[in-house]
Amino acid sequence: MLHAPVQSRARATLGRVLAATEELLRTRAYADVSLSAIASAAGVTTGAIFARFADKDSLLLALDEWLATAITLEADKVLDPAAWAHAPLEASLERLFQATIRIHRQHAGVIRAVGARRDYPPLRDRLNAANRDRGERVRKCVGAAPGQPPRPPSDPAVDLALLMCVSVIRETIVFGGYWPQRLPGTDRALARELARAFAAQISASPAALRRSPRRARRSQATK
């Protein structure tokens, strides 16, 4: 976990190191960014970086934790169940995906680097915990929307819909977009289409999702 330094000079140094790392990752792959390049861009010595981080992966973990703070601030604005209870589901989902798209555009380099090192155990564990937390918050908000049943702690319909939409955002924005001719041309239009896709995915009842194809065919045959 990233602990902010107590002294103002140390905090300023850490801020420069994190900012320089993100700036380099905007145009370079994680493997191509060295600690010496980060130190030069931040205006510090390599020793100053090693005094705080054991290696480059430790620095990336700190950068991801810093990004997580920004994501949490955005999430707090759009994942309030009370607000979802007074708005159409698709409108609330569109706001959620607009915020998600904005975060991915602003921090694409960091997200790309994290994806490249997701097998690093501390980073993997932090990502798993963060994704579980956001999934639970989304389920609560969806369940609070008008006309929606309360969602169980693990709802395959919501989980799949969220994974599907975030994967589209990540693939098209972070990794360059391989199907630009088939996707909406603006971020707002993309958020709107993702909201529609999410709503369509969860329109099937949880009970129907739990039924096996064989049981479903048997049920249809007896009608």
Sum this structure up briefly.
The protein is mostly helical and about 220 residues long.
Give a short account of the largest sheet.
none
Query: Which consecutive residue ranges, at least 5 long each, have pLDDT under 50?
Result: 207-223
Q: Which class do the helix and strand fractions yield?
A: mainly alpha
* SSE string: HHHHHHHHHHHH
Write down the overall geometry: elongated
Let me know the number of strands: 0
Average predicted confidence as pLDDT? 86
N/C terminus separation: 58 Å
Tell me the β content: under 5%
Determine the number of helices (DSSP H or I, runs of at least 4 residues): 12
Measured as a percent range, the helix fraction is over 70%
Cα radius of gyration in angstroms: 21 Å
What does this 3D model show about the protein?
- The chain is mostly helical and 223 residues long.
- The protein has a domain at 55-204.
- Helix content is 70%, strand content 0%.
- It has helices spanning 8-25, 35-42, 46-50, 56-78, 81-84, 89-106, 108-116, 121-144, 156-174, 187-201, 206-210, 213-221.
- Helix 4 (56-78) packs across helix 7 and helix 9 runs antiparallel to helix 10 (187-201).
- It is elongated.
- It starts with 7 loop residues before the first helix and ends with a helix.
- Mean pLDDT is 86; it is low at 207-223.
